[in-house]
Design a protein that fits this description.
It is a single chain. By secondary structure, the protein is an all-alpha fold. It is built from 14 helices and no strands. Helix 7 runs antiparallel to helix 8 and helix 8 runs antiparallel to helix 9. The longest helix is centred in the N-terminal third of the chain and has 15 residues. The protein has two domains: about 130 residues, Tetratricopeptide repeat domain (Serine Threonine Protein Phosphatase 5, Tetratricopeptide repeat); about 90 residues. About 65% of the residues lie in helices and about 0% in strands. The chain is elongated, with a radius of gyration of 22 Å.
Length: about 270
């Protein structure tokens, strides 16, 4: 199972109705940020953020959170995320939730994390939907509820979030919060696996190897286990090597050829 997703580190700024001088400062800060000149970005964004612009506030939060151009300061990151979050910016709400879940810059409080995740999740922000699902699955800050975890994982998974797809596959495989179904587990694992998620690749390989949710296919099993192993999954490497001993030379050659030509879907 995948645990909490980390911070969004790419600015998705909306350029909210800024007066001309403020817009110029904002664009200057954005250009500096993209060029890796975080100190200049900080200087340009601060006055815009102090005027209440959520994008600039979020940008300052990212800079303090990552320690780019300034000493890392989670307390200051939380302050700026909160300013943007209270105005409804989903990315800031999600990142503030992460700080509460981890106890960084604020006192750890899973219930508070759940509240901020929920605000962002209801705006269809996939990372927050995934993190809210994790809290429901683990019973942190909310009453443990696998069905609710499935609900939020599904909403994130349908947006292409690989962590959510992988966790949803696991819940179908184990029958937690949903009727047990290996076939549906295969479906969700495949979505994540095709995007390069090693945990999902490992689990998909095992289902093919054991004829669970799909017709037994040692070539497909070896392919997915090999891909997971290539990304550092030691368990997958062990399973792949055990499976290889039961395969014919032709099957093994076919699986290896597929692995060499495989590319993740975007």
């Amino acid at each position: 199972m995948r645990l909490l997703a980390g911070f969004l580190t790419v600015l998705a700024l909306l350029l909210h109705c800024l007066a001309s001088p403020a817009m110029a400062d904002f664009k200057k800060g954005m250009a500096a940020y993209e060029a890796g000149d975080y100190a200049t970005a900080l200087k340009a964004w601060r006055p815009v953020a102090e005027q209440g612009n959520t994008d600039a506030q979020y940008g300052l939060g990212l800079i303090y959170d990552s320690g780019k151009g300034v000493p890392q300061d989670n307390t200051e990151a939380a302050r700026w995320y909160r300013k943007a979050a209270e105005q409804g910016l989903a990315s800031a709400q999600s990142n503030l939730g992460v700080l509460y879940a981890r106890g960084e810059g604020v006192k750890q409080d899973y219930a508070e994390a759940a509240q901020w995740y929920r605000r962002a999740a209801e705006q269809e922000y996939a990372m927050a939907q995934f993190n809210l699902g994790v809290l429901y699955e683990k019973g942190q800050g909310v009453k443990q509820d696998y069905a609710e975890a499935v609900h939020w994982y599904r909403r994130a998974a349908e947006q292409g979030d690989t962590d959510a797809q992988s966790n949803l596959g696991l819940l179908y495989a184990t029958g937690q919060g949903v009727p047990q179904s290996y076939a549906k587990a295969v479906r969700w694992y495949r979505m994540a696996a095709e995007q390069g998620d090693p945990e999902a690749q490992n689990n998909l390989g095992l289902l093919y190897a054991n004829a669970q949710g799909a017709v037994k296919d040692v070539v497909q099993a070896h392919l997915w286990l090999s891909l997971a192993a290539a990304r550092g999954d030691k368990s997958a490497a062990k399973e792949r090597d055990l499976l290889a001993k039961k395969m014919t030379a032709d099957q093994l050659a076919q699986a290896q050829k597929l692995a060499r030509g495989w590319k993740p879907k975007k």
